[in-house]
Every structure is written in C-alpha cells, then in structure tokens.
Specification:
The complex is a heterodimer of chains A (117) and B (114).
Chain A lengths: L3 E2 L4 E5 L4 E3 L2 E2 L7 E7 L6 E7 L7 E2 L2 E6 L4 E6 L8 E8 L10 E2 L3 E6 L1
Parallel strand pairs in A: 2-12
Antiparallel strand pairs in A: 1-4, 3-9, 5-6, 5-10, 7-8, 8-9, 10-11, 10-12
Chain B lengths: L3 E4 L2 E4 L5 E7 L6 E6 L5 E9 L2 E4 L6 E3 L9 E3 L8 E11 L2 E6 L3 E5 L1
Parallel strand pairs in B: 2-11
Antiparallel strand pairs in B: 1-3, 3-8, 4-5, 4-9, 5-6, 7-8, 9-10, 9-11
Classes of the chains: A mainly beta (117), B mainly beta (114).
C-alpha cells in the first residue's frame, strides 16, 4: 500500500505568488516524521523542511511552511512568493517510528513545479 | 567542508558487468543509505547500514550488494543479476539539523547500460 501520496504530477505558479503542494500519508505509528525535499534538474536532493508527528506548531523555514493536519494525515508544503529558481521536482517523504532502527525514508512520486515569469 | 561525495557522476555498464558506485561521508555519522530513483518517480531504498560491518536489505535489494568496512564509506555494487540497472543512485546519511535528525543526500550517480 502506498504510504505517501502526491496527487499533483505537475503544478504551475506565477512568479511572486504562493503555491501549495499536496501530500497525504498513511501510517499506524504514533511517532513519525515528515519531510519535503526539492530536486532541481541537476538531480541533487535538497532538504527543505521537517515536521514531527508530535509537533504542535506547523514547521516554517523561510519561504517554506508545512501545513500539517494530523487528523487528515496531510502534510502540504506551502511556498510563498515563488521565484523562478523554485522550478523543480518536490518530494514528500516520511520516516516511521525510530524503534525499528531502519530510519529510512519512504518517498512519494513527486510534483513538478514550474514557476512562470 | 562536511558532506557526502559520490563518484562517478556518470557510469556506463556493459551487459554482464559488475560496477561499483562510491559513497563517502565525513560527517562522522553511523547510518548510511542507498536509494534508487527511476525517471519521474520517487526514491526507493536499496540497502542501509546502521554501523560498520553491518548492513540490511531495503525494499529493492535484489541484484545489488554493499559493504561497510569503514564508517566513512558505503560502496554499492550493481551486479549482473540486476537486469534493469539504468537509474539515478543516491547515497544519504543521517545527520542532525538543529534538534532534528534528517537525511542528507550526495549528488548522485547516473548509471546507464551500454
């Protein structure tokens, strides 16, 4: 069963506008972490933002914020004031309970964001 | 400069050939991971290692092998048993960003079959 679902294969946004990238997840763990990564055409995976399952406040990092709705199991990324350099693939990922020792990430299929001038 | 390096950037494999992808880190972290990314898709876990001389299979380990003889190094061998090796391979290790543990990635290796 897919654990991370990103339903938007592609998104367009005008420069300087805000955009929301959707992510829903499925887990039975009480303790988990949610991550967003940016992947430009060069291929590198750039960490953007993290939300822990017990964090009461939504995470923010500069122009990035994470809209965490635990009951809905959603962790949407909001990018404010879009810039041309934001054009890239964006991946949502989850790390489930640390007790397994694995601590690996499960990734969604990604959303390609294109910022238009 | 602390970080993760991967080499080579591009690698070509002939039919029946084993090839090894390098991953080195100087972040002094124990846990290291190998992921595979196919075009237009997310990453999938191949192997991981939590400590030197120990490693575990991930979700798609068939046709791959790894070793962890040193803390800094976690090479991945793509064997001839891997029938569809063309992909982008990313190495990662866990590190701390503030009070939070997360995975940071190397620049990746693109493997192509001749």
């Amino acid at each position: 069963a897919q654990k991370i679902t990103q339903t938007q294969p592609g998104m367009f946004v005008q420069e300087k506008e805000a955009v929301t990238l959707d992510c829903t997840y499925d887990t039975s763990d009480q303790s988990y972490g949610l991550f967003w990564y940016k992947q430009p055409s060069s291929g590198e995976m750039i960490f953007l933002i993290y939300q822990g399952s017990y964090d009461e406040q939504n995470a923010t990092e500069g122009r990035y914020s994470l809209n965490f709705q635990k009951a809905r199991k959603s962790a949407n990324l909001v990018i404010s004031a879009s810039q041309l350099g934001d054009s890239a693939m964006y991946f949502c990922a989850m790390r489930e309970g640390k007790d397994t020792g694995r601590r690996a990430l499960t990734f969604g299929s990604g959303t390609r964001l294109q910022v238009q001038p | 400069d602390g970080g993760i390096t991967q080499s080579p950037k591009y690698l070509f494999r002939k039919e029946g050939q084993n090839v090894t992808l390098s991953c080195e880190q100087n972040l002094n972290h124990d846990a290291m991971y190998w992921y595979r990314q196919d075009p237009g898709q997310g990453l999938r876990l191949i192997y991981y290692s939590q400590i030197v001389n120990d490693f575990q299979k991930g979700d798609i380990a068939e046709g791959y092998s790894v070793s962890r003889e040193k803390k800094e190094s976690f090479p991945l061998t793509v064997t001839s048993a891997q029938k569809n090796p063309t992909a982008f391979y990313l190495c990662a290790c866990i590190t701390l960003a503030g009070a939070m543990e997360t995975q940071y990635f190397g620049p990746g290796t693109r493997l192509l079959v001749l």
